[in-house]
Amino acid sequence: MTLLPRPAAALLALLLSAAGGASSATSDEFLYTVQPGDSVWSLAARYLHQQHTWQDLRTNNQLRSDRLQPGQVLRIPLPWLRLTTQEARLAALRGDVMLNSGTGWTAARADTPLPPGTWLRTPVDGTATLQMQDGTRVLVRPSSELRLIPLDRAQQEAWIRAQSASSPGPAPRAGTAPVRIELLRGGLESAVQPQPDHSRFEIRTPSAVTTVRGTEFRVSADADSTRAEVVHGRVDFGNTLGEVPLETATGSRADQGLQPVAAVPLLPAPELETAPDPLSTEQVRALRWPPVAGAVAYRVQWFGDDASASLLHESVQPTAGPGVPALADGTYQLRVRAIDAIGLEGLPGARTLTLFTPPPPPPPPPPAPRTPQFSTHWLDNRIELRWAPVDPQACVQVQIAEDGAFERVVLDELTPREGLNLPAPLRPGPYHVRVRVLLADGGRSGWSEPRAFDLRSSQEPPP
């Protein structure tokens, strides 16, 4: 709830009058401190309902002149004020986030204003970030449903009365009326800007109410219970049966129909400093951090490392490891919280990590061709080699040497045929022959076992 905004000027006056007017407000009026440049005409146009004019403002304050002096205090009856309730803005979203402003559920879009009365729902794999006018940010976790609660006229006027009753000081800016969120299920993570006196950021759930004036805290709820954890600052957490003040690093739980449990220390942040960086997919799968004493599970969150810092992936893991997030290659912030036996989540451990997909391994080489089995036959003082058929795209390499180590090769020939008749020009004497298969893609078999033969000058084969 706010007065309509005015540039670079305070809207609500808490100072006593320096000239003209009374020194304190009654229960049904508000005191406004005149700022440089103010006039009865501009104030009436900016802050009053259309049925009330600058003449009403002048008459009510018994002004003898239309000119106003900075620091002068004017009385404004509360019913004259044109009041509005501040809006939130959907700063970022991921997944199929849905909105309902009273006309049915529709797909949400980033940068959409969210007036009071708006319902918001996140899917199981989606998140939303709300930005308030005062800079407060609220992360809505997956599987959550909430409503921005509007202030009715009586609540608006009660807030203004509280402002006018506070001690003198700077006038609050527009948009500092208390924000109220009704969380039906799911979880919120809030970073609340310091609130003016008598203002509270408020979250209501089915079993408790959480109010703050500036802090970093979390609230999660289901049909049976509500849990609140304070990372920094102070929170009042309670229901109709009792209230628990929560300081930094403490939390509480309120079950339906029961008063909140006394504040308990939150579990310490998991130690993530030893995690290697960068990490491949397999390294993420194998990543572990030292177990936190008292933890029964861990909430693992992966945030973008850009300016939006959106929550991209979240899971609850039963052991001290992050699981395998479905994330593309890039740089992320990993945040991990230990969860205790009553469901309270501890202080966050954080680490910026770069994930990458390792290149695929090279394909295995083609299977080596089988070493051909060959035989030798004598024919007309020539030796004939024969082997089993090989791949049509392959050829056979034949080597003949004078020694068994094939250091003195006298014939090295390639042939696509299934046999070879060795020529007569070889000198008579002992020889060794071997063969192997060569494929077109470069693959090759091993050499066959060498076979010895004795080439004679006679046409008769050796005995």
Q: Which properties best describe this structure?
A:
LysM peptidoglycan-binding domain-containing protein; five-stranded mixed beta sheet; LysM; Immunoglobulin-like; Ig-like_fold; disordered N terminus
CATH superfamily of the domain at 374-455: Immunoglobulins
Instruction: Report the mean per-residue pLDDT as an integer.
Output: 82
What is the correct CATH architecture of the domain at 374-455?
Sandwich
Q: How would you characterize the largest beta sheet?
A: 17 strands, mixed
**Principal-axes shape call:** elongated
Strand residue percentage: 35-45%
Number of strands: 33
Alpha plus pi helix count:
4
Structural class: mainly beta
For the termini, the CA-CA separation is 117 Å
Enumerate the spans where pLDDT stays under 50 for 5 or more consecutive residues.
Answer: 1-25, 167-176, 459-463
Radius of gyration: 42 Å
CATH hierarchy, class of the domain at 374-455 = Mainly Beta
Give the proportion of residues in helices. under 10%
Fill in the CATH topology of the domain at 374-455. Immunoglobulin-like
Organism: Sphaerotilus montanus
Protein name: LysM peptidoglycan-binding domain-containing protein
Domain LysM: 30-76
Domain Fibronectin type-III: 368-458
